[in-house]
Amino acid sequence: MDILRVIIAILLPPLGVFLQVGFGLHFWLNILLTLLGYIPGIVHAIWVIAKK
Fold it and tell me: Measured between alpha carbons, how far is residue 15 from residues 6, 52 in Å?
């Protein structure tokens, strides 16, 4: 399941974070990072998924 989340996080970072933690601080932070730059959003999403 984590491999699927990582693939989703690469394609759409906020969705990957949402599937991991729901509507929390990390979700909103990831949306902000994705808007500021796509790569920081991906890095944050993969970090959230790997932290589990």
Answer: 10, 16
Going by C-alpha positions, the residue among 39, 11, 43 that lies closest to residue 26 is 43
AA identity, residue 20: Q
Asked if 5 and 13 count as a contact pair (C-beta separation under 8 A), the reply is: no
pTM of the prediction? 0.92
Query: What is residue 52's predicted lDDT score, i.e. its pLDDT?
Result: 80
- Cα–Cα distance for residue pair 51/11, rounded to 1 Å: 19
Query: Roughly how many angstroms between the first and final C-alpha of the chain, as a whole number?
Result: 12
